[in-house]
Amino acid sequence: MVIRVFIASSSGFVAIKKKQQDVVRFLEANKIEFEEVDITMSEEQRQWMYKNIPPEKKPTQGNPLPPQIFNGDRYCGDYDSFFESKESNTVFSFLGLKSRLASKAEP
């Protein structure tokens, strides 16, 4: 399974761009393999993202905004959920990954 981050490369909203960059930078810094999926370039991917976000996680009005995070086909959450997991140091669990701390050998 690969982490997929659904982004919008041509978003005019600075807040969305910052949130997308925050997620991508965190994954890169922690050497977590991921794929960026640009929903502005593919209507099929945009529809897939909308369809695979659980109804209880969708906004009451409008469509879910990027970034949206998946592990394969499993929905992990949006930026707010990601941020909460980052603050509580539970990102690996949020992403459905095994913590790297458990696999590190002691020096």
Automatic annotation (TrEMBL):
Family: Belongs to the SH3BGR family.
Gene3D superfamilies given in the database record: Glutaredoxin
Keywords: Nucleus, SH3-binding
Signal peptide limits: none
Record protein name field: SH3 domain-binding glutamic acid-rich-like protein
Main location: nucleus
Any one GO MF annotation of this record: SH3 domain binding
Pfam families: SH3BGR
Underlying gene: SH3BGRL2
Gene Ontology cellular component list: cytoplasm; nuclear membrane; nucleoplasm
